[in-house]
Each structure stands twice: as structure tokens, then as C-alpha cells.
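Recall that a protein's primary structure is simply its ordered list of amino acids. Everything else, from secondary elements to tertiary packing, is in principle encoded there. The following example makes that idea concrete.
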Amino acid sequence: MTTSDWSPHFTTRVAEQMRQARKAACLTVAESAEACAALGLTIPKTTITNLETGRRSSIDLAEFLVLAEVYKIPPISLLFPLGTDATVDVLPGREVPTWDVVSWFTGETSLSKPAPDGSARDFLDTYRAHSDAVATALASTRTAKERRRKASIALDPGRRESLLEMAASYEQLAFDDCRELREFRDRMHERGLALPVLPADLAFVDESTTSTENIE
């Protein structure tokens, strides 16, 4: 494929992915246009039709993102057909395995050693690690609360005591997870990185102290 052919070919492939996504969402072109307008960006029916039929050889980035939201599909899935195409022309004259393209795009390419501090990959790895820490703390906190709830409604005194002991062990695990999350966020703050907003169930993590009282 020549360099001049790559751009329209890439757009055609993305447009086909978008057409399939629209069909999967059970939306007509008119309904898609209405949904775009409801999100704050007017995309005429003719624009969507021209894109899907190949009469339009380019797509605006804002249109692309809004349509992805309307079709409820990750934008990256529209760009790179992972699972259906073994390879993809990621750049002019560069056809590579689709997963390699996806991992390049998301910064997930394997590294033999940690990324240099302050590099784009370092930031990606930091925020991914933060997301994992949030998920861990959220899961353990909710589990601890559920264990405490079950103990509180147990009628048999012996079983209630056993459940309370078990709840306390889960609360300790949740406490440790939340403390690790707080320490991670403290390190991010020291680096001058913007802190992601925590889920409501973990809002207490940013308070001056983390105690099991917040978990119960």
C-alpha cells in the first residue's frame, strides 16, 4: 500500500467498524445523529451516511469520539479491529500484528526495565497502578462491610461471634489496602501529578488518617 493510499484506507476501515458498531447498537442513522446532538455535538445524518459509504475520506476527531460514545464501544476498538484482523496498517507502509498496534497505542508495550521517571510511559504505568490499587481497596472495603453486616444480623450468639471475628480480619485487610492506596496517592501528589477522583466509598482515604472506623 502506498503512502497516499494509507489515509483513505485507514478511514474506510474505521468507518466500517463504526457501521458495524451502529448496527450492533440497533441504531438507525437518524437515531445516531439525534444521540450525537443530545451529547452536544451535531453530526448530520448525511455525514454519518457519507462516512459509512466511503463518500467521505476523513473523520473529525470530535465526531469520532462522540460516535464511539453513542455506539457504546471503546474508541480503540473502532481504530484497531482486535479479534477480527490479524494485522493492521498502523502507519503508511507498516503492517503489524493488531495486538502490537493496540499495545503501542495504549502504552502497554512490554519493557525490560521500568520506564524513565517523567516519561510518557512512566505516567501511564503510574495511573494504571493507581487504578489497580483503587479496585483492590474498593473490593476489600465492600467485602469487609458486607461481612460486618452479616455478623450484625446473625441470631445465634456463637455464630455471631465467629462472624464478627471474621469481619475483623476482613476489615484489617481493607485497612491495609486503603493505607497502601493513600500512600500511593501521597507519592503521586509529591510528584505533582493530578490525583484521580476516588469513588464515594473510598473518599475517606484522602482524609488525614485512615482507620477501620471508616471501613465499618
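The radius of gyration is 24 Å. The chain has a mean pLDDT of 90.
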